[in-house]
Amino acid sequence: MRAGWLITFLTACAACGPSAPRSSPTASPASTQSPTRAVAAVPGAPPIRISHRSAPKDVTAAVADALVRAGYDVAVDHPFVVGDAAWALDLTVVGTVAPLPGGRDLAYGVDVVVTFHAQNVDHVRISFVGAPGAVGANEVEPIVRALVEHGALAAFVAEHRARNEARAAKEGRDAAEAQRARDETWARAQPERCRELATDEACRLLVEWQTTHREDPRAAEASAIMAATAARRDEAAWASAGVNRCRAPKKVDDCYGVVSYLEGHRSGAHVKEAEDVLDAVAATRRVLAEREEAARLARKRVGCRSHCAREPSPGCESICMADPER
C-alpha cells in the first residue's frame, strides 16, 4: 500500500507588504508555469504537487524550480488525482514578505514542514533577503539541500520502501503457500482418474471438491471434466439400453433398458429418442405384457392343480391362484 504524504511550505515574515515583489536582474529567473517532470532525487520519493494560495507567485515558482533542479518530480497547480492521492507529496506555499528599510529589498522567511499522517518527518527553516519579484531557485535552493542533507526524508522513504517490500514479500509467500495448498487439494480430488474412468466412484472425490471450492480458479476445469464424464456416461448408458431391440420387441423386457435410461438420465442427450421409441412400441408392449401375463397365469394354474391333487382341500385351487407367492 502506498503512503500518503503532506508537505506544507509556510512563507512568513514580521510584517506584510502590500504589493507583490518585482523582478531583479541579480536573481535567477523563475517560471510561473508547471516545470518539467524529472526523476526524484531521494530514491523512492513520491511526486510533489504544489498548490498556489496566497504566497507571491515568484516564490511558489522558485520553490518548484529548486525542487526540479534537485531532480524531484514536480507539478504546480496539478489537478488532484484520486489515484495519486495516497502517494503524492502535497506542498502548499502560503505567506507574505516583509519590506526592509529603504524599500528596495524584502525579507523572506520560509518554513518547510514534512509530515506523514500528522507524524513529523522533517522541518526546514530558511530566511533570505531579495529584491521584489526577484526570488528564484537559487534563493530557496537551501530548502532542498537541507532536506537532502538532513537525511530524514530519505530515511523515511527507505523505511517505508523496506516495509512495503517486506509486505510484498510476505504476500508473495502467502500466495505461494495458498497455491501449494490448492494444488495439493486438487491432486487429492483425482481429476484425471475421473476424466479417464468416467464412473460415479472415480468422480466422487472431484464432486466433493467442487462443493467446497466453487471460487477456486480450477472450478471451471472441474466443471468441464464433470460435464465431459457425464456425457460419456450418458452415451455408455444409451449404448447399453438395447434401443434396437426395443424398436421391434419380442418380449416385454426388450424395452427395459430404454425405460431404465429414461429413469436415470432425465437430462440425457437421448431422452427424446428414447421417448419416441417407447411411444412407437407402446401398443406392442401392451400386447406382449398381456400375453406374458396370460402365460404366467396358465403356468400358475397348472402348478396349483398339481399341488391340490397332491394335497386336496376345500377351495384349494382358488386359494392357490390368489396366493401372490405362487
Fold and architecture overview:
It is a single chain. This protein has eleven helices and seven strands. With 326 residues, it is of the alpha/beta class. Strands 1, 2, 3, 4, 5, 6 and 7 form a seven-stranded mixed β-sheet that branches. Helix 1 crosses helix 2 (137-150), helix 8 (256-264) runs antiparallel to helix 9 (271-280) and helix 10 packs antiparallel against helix 11.
Structural class: alpha/beta
- Averaged pLDDT: 79
Task: Please describe the biggest sheet, giving its number of strands, its sense, and whether it closes into a barrel.
Answer: 7 strands, mixed
User: What is the total tally of β strands?
Assistant: 7
Keywords:
single chain, 7-stranded mixed sheet, 49% helix, 11 helices, alpha/beta, 326 residues, disordered N terminus
Blueprint (SSEs and pairs):
Elements: E1 6-12, E2 48-52, H1 57-69, E3 74-76, E4 89-95, E5 98-99, E6 106-116, E7 119-130, H2 137-150, H3 152-188, H4 191-197, H5 204-212, H6 219-239, H7 243-247, H8 256-264, H9 271-280, H10 282-310, H11 316-322
Parallel strand pairs: 1-4, 2-3, 2-4
Antiparallel strand pairs: 1-6, 5-6, 6-7
Provide a brief overview of the structure.
The chain is of the alpha/beta class and 326 residues long. 49% of the residues lie in helices and 14% in strands.
